[in-house]
Amino acid sequence: MSKRTIPVTQVRLGMHIHALEGPWISHPFWKTRFVLTDPEDLQKLVHSGVPGVVIDVSKGVDVQEAAEPPVAPRAAAPAPAVVAVPPAAPRKASGPPPEPSCSMADELSQAKAIYRQSREQVTSMFAEARLGKAIDAEECLPLVNDIADSVFRNPGALVSLARLKTQDDYTYMHSVAVCALMVALGKQLGLDEAACREAGLSGLLHDLGKAVMPQDVLNKPGKLTDDEFTIMKSHPVRGFEMLQEARGAPEGAMDVCLHHHERIDGTGYPHKLPGDKLSLLARMGAVCDVYDAITSNRPYKAGWDPAHSIAQMAGWKGHFDTVVFQAFVKSLGIYPVGSLVKLKSGKLAVVTEQNPKNLVSPLVKVFFSSKSQLHITPTVLDLSQSNDQIVSRESPEAWGFKDLDALWAGDLPKR
After folding, report:
1. pTM, rounded to two decimals
2. Where is this region: Disordered (predicted)?
């Protein structure tokens, strides 16, 4: 057999780490399958609290072949040539996520490419799950990394773009949207970079159970019957069971999959858990899942305007964790990208980018005069540098606007 389990004190440079034992939360690395080449990573691993690892000797050195001496545990007798390193603090396996480095306009082109790529990959993943094939969660990591990197460069681009899904691809692109939203929310909550990526993976996999739901129920254009709703309410458990059989699925992802429909007041499903029994990731997943669901076009209803959705969610008492929801609003803005707003001047505008230092004064693109009832030349306006200001959020449907997204997103990704 090429794989064997060894205690962490026997790990040497040159070994191929196939899996880490113990809970995911204590792992010092984002990936769990890699060749260990960095002495600093070896020190992190030895002092992480992980009891053991699974190595693949067909892809790296075995215990007897390793040239490097073992790193002694902290409680062991002194060993030569070993430098004492303080144990790493919990969840500090990586530093904070990088600060935004791209404008909305610059990141949109990259985000569109990721959008197209992600649709293909997630569609394939759901198709394999529907056929009963075991999912390899680590195969999702490159996509999660691409999504997270985009969110780190500019949190508004991919998060906003992923909302623009069609009814036909809702199930697949909803997973991508929740992935991006989870990364942005994790960053706002102060999670480190590795934890933000774990949150993203949890979002990508949270609805896997829908792959085995009856298609006529999943895509029904009207209201579900009680029996149909009971079937749909089984998708968290089904997804959890699938992730238990998956390769490389972290505990956090399984937890979000199982509990993203729970509510803080204990009225959710499948286990009616109150807020103090829910993990941070599960509470994050609940907010991100609902926001993308209500802002997206579904088989049975049109999506709500982003700003209207935030306002509605704020009024749902007992549904969301207050601290998590407040952080979510800060990550998106009170008026998220794509929101239709009326200005004090009487002009209508669509929000194009957030101003992190002033959530009520985003960048907008002015395009319509409510006084003359005529379209005007679209002009970008930074409300933080203007005497004009938002006086209300407006309904695109009430005004008859059907192409607002093109005003901020330009040419939309081809589907």
Report:
1. 0.78
2. 87-106
